[in-house]
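ok so i was messing around last nite and threw this chain in just to see what happens. nothing serious, just curious
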Amino acid sequence: MSSLVSETLGGLSDLLAGLPPESTQRAAGYPSLFLLVAVGALVPVVPTGAVVSSAAVVALHQSDPLALGLVFVVAASAAFLGDMTLYWLGRRGVRSKNGSRWLEELRGHAAPDRLEQAQARLADHGTAVLVLSRLIPAGRIPVMLACLLARMPIAVFARGNLPACLAWAATYQLIGVLGGSLFQEAWQGVAVAVGLTVIVSAGPALWRRFRRGRPDSPGQAA
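result:
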């Protein structure tokens, strides 16, 4: 029994010793973070917020003082590039008589009532609504589609989208830092950060579904 324990501990020691150094982890981690966030901006089903929060936790447990700053720059840059690419593809669909697959994908992710709300907010507040749309779960696509249908020039969209991506990256990085600071082990912080991200992302949708399922109060019944 003791020999089995010794062999197990020895194997774990060898495994930990064989992990790549921080420099190697960063060399692979930052490109992966950029790719995942950029693809997530193009394909709305990818949970990019959880990716950024997890990367922030890992950076928090590294010795490099610039790690968190690099995560912020990489995440914000990837989100901006992904958004601009998706908007450019959507503009091609708006100008085309037959539309495009990307424009139809955007329409499929924007419920008619959410699109109407986004168009009203865009008319009232202009590009400032892009910042809020990035922070509200499932709010980015309806606002982007509203901008496309309003034929907003790509340069105007870019000026509004840049601060939106910066605010988004900072928010989800803060979630990761808060989760990672509670534990000494990085994996524990990642689990907490992912859980917080899921709550932030799914909470509003669940609340709206709950409100729809509630019966009307006596004062509302007519």
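not much to say yet. The two ends are 75 Å apart (CA to CA).
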